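Risk register update: the risk of archive-format incompatibility is retired. Evidence:
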Amino acid sequence: MIEAGDTMFGKRGNDGENRTTPEFRQAPAVPAAESLTLDERPADAGSLARRQVDPAPPLAPEPKRPATSGRPRSENYYDTKSQVFSALIDTIDLSQLAKLEPDAAREEIRDIVNDIIAIKNFAMSISEQEELLEDICNDVLGYGPLEPLLARDDIADIMVNGARQVFIEVAGRVEQTQIRFRDNQQLLNICQRIVSQVGRRVDESSPICDARLPDGSRVNVIAPPLAIDGTALTIRKFKKDKLTLDQLVRFGSISPEGAELLKVIGRVRCNVIISGGTGSGKTTLLNCLTNYVDRDERVITCEDSAELQLQQPHVVRLETRPANLEGEGEITMRDLVKNCLRMRPERIIVGEVRGPEVFDLLQAMNTGHDGSMGTIHSNNPRECLNRMESMIAMGGFTLPQKTVREIIVGSIDVIIQAARLRDGSRRITHVTEVIGMEGDVIITQDLMTYEIRGEDANGRLIGAHVSSGVGRPAFWDRARYYGEEARVAAALEAMETSK
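Archived output:
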């Protein structure tokens, strides 16, 4: 055990000097190569190896620290950091470090690094030393150079294109940062640390991986040899404060009347598909809609990487699983959706429909699981319907086209279209009902659309959400069953008068 006044570097005496004790030293010390991080240490490195195979999850990257300076670092800085890091690895006992809380572990590391800097007599300013301390703590306990970006709540996406290029999206605009990794191996190690927390792997035999961070942020990794210029890492960050429809109104993503209509749609158990392109806000909108699910309903979610953040007390979260090294044990989205039907769900929510599982979701929607929801990649409501047909055909179902369309019409009530516009803003562009068929053609009607009317001097698009003039939606009887017909009528009337 570590007693008060001790550090991983040694036992501190009354005079403040470190008096090294054998139990906290590596015996014998193993020289650390500059290109290695904690997850790469050789198996014969004593207690370092114990840290690598420790079944406990890696130390959480909390607490987040403020972003460090964005100015470029010199090669001399990285050389100094490599020397300090190597000395730290030779000195510290990682098995003891792993037992500490993140804050305590961070303080221990800072004490040791300060001692190393003093012993080796590196010439550094106070600000440079503070940056070095923060960088090394992030490397050991967190996600290295990514930590300052993860700490910022204004970033929507982090895009790492190899060790030398890191881009971020802020306020709908993509910009390059001065953040960089020491080399491609450090980047790959951080990616492995991220995906290992959810029981997945990324290497040459499995170079593509979807995962998530502890806060629910979505992660995609594609490693060499598929990524030619070094590992590509993409993180879709979630805001710490979960968005609501009322906040989307303040952002201009939807009008107040449109938000009221969506609240009713979520409340009265309409079957909803949220359609949109990449980065259009589909998952955010799905999270917003689930706020209006009754708290006594049993909700089951199926996702490739669990990222939905439902607030109801009775939620079962399911996640797909890739095949193991032998190519066995894969659990697909279709497996999860089919299994949901045996779990007494009241609502089934599919994070993203990409393939034949759309057929099982439609079957669930059409067999008593009203209020089910999902997202799909498409550019408009009509294309959304066409994509569903194509996905069913991809699954090998030999059904007549008219039968497939009848299943779609009988299952889906509302399609909500989200879009990311050319100025970087996100808007809900259509709220469209699926109302029936005429011959072999699916008939839809728009309840609300978004009209672009120009742009301002700063290049921001100007537009408005307008009613299509529908006096009574097709889900009117459903709304009346739940006692919400007055809210629907008021919302449609308000949209009509605000034209």
